[in-house]
Design a protein that fits this description.
Layout (H helix, E strand, L loop, with lengths): L2 H12 L5 H13 L1 H17 L15 H12 L7 H27 L5 H21 L5 H10 L8 H13 L3 H12 L5 H13 L3 H13 L6 H9 L5 H14 L1
């Protein structure tokens, strides 16, 4: 395996991002391979030294209520305050406000009298602003803010094409594995949409994070998406892919055939 892939997997393991077969795979190599063990010890020590200075990551559970997630972030930021903490606090309050606007706006939209056009227009403008805020937050340098933007989408009644395309881009290119997984979970809620399904299938060919590859394969198997068989075959034939990924792809082909 290439050294950079080994290093990436070890760092994901140290950060607690891995689970299931992939986690077992890494633990096995750390115990049995001296190079893996040395690399693990080096990065584990480095992680401890940097832990007090790095910006806090989002919580591991991708299904937590956004309000709980926001409280968690604010509470922890009182313990470790990055240089741009004031900016991050502002972003979190903006996202929280966005969720409230969407939730309240939806309820009001049902009960509002048709004659109150001014109020309806105002509400539409607020919801448009909320959408813009979510999209802008996906480009934020903070992984926590990007994850917060994905979680905020759960308060939307539906995701339009702009949001879907933004989440697909996040799934395929975000540098943080938790943000990618969150985008994948958000997209899975709209897997009945043909455009979303096509994007998930296409992601098999571009995805470069092993943990995300495995979750994506399992999702497509659950969806019984037979169009995924061909890209899965390519995954099994590419020796640069991890053994665990190739094994999962083979299993997916078996289940879908």
């Amino acid at each position: 395996m290439e050294e950079n892939k080994m290093t990436e997997l070890i760092n994901d393991y140290i950060d607690g991002y891995l689970s299931g077969e992939l986690k077992v795979y890494v633990e096995k190599h750390i115990h049995e391979d001296q190079e893996w063990k040395s690399t693990y010890e080096k990065y584990s020590e480095l992680n401890k030294l940097m832990n007090n200075d790095k910006e806090l990551e989002a919580p591991a559970s991708l299904r937590k209520d956004f309000e709980q997630f926001l409280d968690h972030e604010i509470e922890n930021q009182t313990k470790v305050v990055p240089i741009n903490s004031a900016i991050n606090h502002k972003r979190w309050y903006q996202l929280a406000a966005a969720v409230v606007i969407l939730a309240v706006g939806y309820i009001l939209g049902i009960s509002m009298n048709k004659g109150n056009t001014d109020e309806i227009d105002q509400l539409r403008n607020e919801m448009a602003a909320t959408k813009a805020l979510v999209l802008n937050s996906l480009d934020d340098q903070s992984a926590s803010s990007r994850l917060g933007a994905v979680n905020a989408s759960y308060s939307m009644e539906a995701m339009d094409d702009d949001i879907v395309q933004a989440f697909v881009k996040t799934l395929n290119t975000d540098e943080n594995i938790n943000v990618r997984l969150a985008a994948l979970e958000a997209l899975s809620r709209y897997a009945d949409d043909e455009n979303v399904r096509k994007a998930l299938i296409e992601s098999l060919s571009t995805q470069d994070k092993p943990a995300v590859q495995i979750v994506l394969i399992n999702l497509l198997v659950q969806l019984k998406e037979k169009r995924a068989i061909e890209p899965l075959k390519k995954l099994t034939e590419d020796e640069e892919n991890m053994e665990a990924v190739r094994d999962e792809a083979n299993y997916g082909i078996f289940k879908l055939s």
